[in-house]
Amino acid sequence: MNAGNEPVGENGALLNNTQDRITLTVKSFATFREIMDPQIRMDFLKGATIRTLLTELTGRYEGLGELMFAAPGTLRDFVNILKNGRNVHFLAGLDTPLDDGDVIALFPPVAGG
Amino acid sequence: MDGYAGKMVYADLSAGKVTIKPTPKKLKKEYLGGRGFGIRLLTDMVDPKVDPLGDKNVVVYAAGPLTGTGIPLGSRYEVSTISPLTGTAMSANSGGVFGWKMKKAGFDAVVVTGKAKKPVYLMLDNGKAEIRDATHLWGKTTGQTTDAIMEELKDDKVRVSCIGPAGEKLVLFACIINEKTRAAGRGGVGAVMGSKNLKAIAARGDLPIKAADEELLNVVKDRVRKKIEDNGIEKALHNYGTAVLINIINENYVLPTRNFQSAHFPNAEKVSGETIAKTILKKPKGCYACIVQCGRVHEFDDESGEGPEYEPDWAFGPDCGIDDLKAVARANNICNEYGLDAISAPTTIACLMEMAEKGYVKHPIRFGDAKGMLKLVEQIAKREDIGDELAEGSFRFATKYGHPECSMSSKKQELPAYDPRGIQGYGLATATSVRGGDHVYGYMIYPEVLGAPEKLDPYVTKGKPQWVKTFQDLTASIDASGMCLFTSFALDAQDYADLLTATTGMKINPAELLKIGERIWNLQKLYNIKRGFGRKDDTLPARLLNEPLKEGAPTGQVWRRDEMLDEYYTLRGWDAEGTPTKGKLKGLGLA
How much is the ipTM here? Predict the structure, then answer.
């Protein structure tokens, strides 16, 4: 598993030019933690989006795609993804661009009260 | 049969007399049960001028028609009274097993009036009711009281709903505890019990609870069970409990921290549901007929108990600047043992912490002081030292010292675990709540943060008044039905209507269901108006309207009351002061 030491682009190729790179912190919670690491750092090429990130993650962690997506490209109801505390649903959804230093939080359906 | 036990107990403690009467048909039709029964009976019987802790106040215990019918999550009962904390008509909801037992004992509701000369408890026993001496129980914790009654009756199947020392001492936010750990938590319902010298209600019996159409009910039960099981939310509740919310609310930058001075707690992970699951959790636990089991049984060191649920976890944790999970769990256990509301107790302590740090009160407590916090919880419960002043709630305490702005309350009841500045509709729901600061009379966190039934932008006010009204009315119906509010994560109005139709035999459609809820809401509102409440009270602490959030995505946000309140009143059919119009009351059968 690449936990951030080897930067990869959208197609998995190693990134050599640091100027083209962005670094993210990705956090997972609740039942997602039963499948993936609670917190990892990941590098991407500039221009990457939430969709890029999820493609990478679902490739890495077996079973995550099934928990996260109802159909290809469609998140399950009640799955929430935050970019620096803002739900990407109110940004550009899966096409929300990623920026260097972003903290991305991934939540499965949760409730309480 | 119609899902109801069919009878109600009227216990006049002044006269030492109990009377049993049939449950009125009209009451069932117009108010269903639970909160509906409580608010109707209370507002009929109690003059709005009475002192909530005087002998003229009334306490109503009521289950719903769906309580104890075997429907998944159909376990709830409500305690209604005039709140000594807020002065509003109040209802507090509890789960566990007691509501079911009350019906198995033969009763839909218990109406307690007057004041006993000495401590008593009320025994509900297979269709009979009796007032018994409780002198020997006075001073005991809720656990000791429960054990003592079971021992006295030589019956481990009897279930007990009681107060602890905090209720006896009239702490204004004392609660009622059944089965040692389930709370009718808010509004000081336990203090009203204490004021009547009523230590407990115990129930046992094996009388039948039958639905009008058992065959149809089984079909609907299977449908709702499948919807609950298929809903991913219920799995997270089972695995991590309600405290699973700590991280998500914190990551949204709306987790009130250090008495709402910020909305992000860097050490939230240490008190999160995920951490509970991998450290102190012994096993999950559910109420009667629960297939979710969000309750937490914990064990660590010499400590054992249940919880902490999300609200006390947040309140003793981030709101007090504390990241020591064991201290939080211990504080929660003290609340259960002494019978304290585990939201108002810690948030009142958080208020003291801010005032002490700012020099408004001379006291050594500071944010993050877990040991000092634990001491204060016991002092409040016993009304010892500064605990005697804190036992009046944060609003009265902060006002006494000249700084009411330090009380994070609405209508004198402490606010729950969400910062309204970053969740506009939730702010409106809690500001207009007819029982004061509250989150479960219209849980807008669901659409605005958790994204269901659809995702609503939490920073936007447009459209929120309609959502708030619908959530408030639907919740009132669910509270009247006897179902757990958590079913609303998976079920819709049609599901509840079908469950009620099959159980009661009354033809209830979603529109009728919402109308019953709206009737309850308006009745509660009308009563509050008679006690002097108006538009001025439908608001939140000035801090939340004037001081913008400073961290994360909601940076710069304040709660924008003026963009929503007039529209909310109009949608409710109320005038600009928030008073229901004659036309509205006529439409609801309240004129």
Answer: 0.94
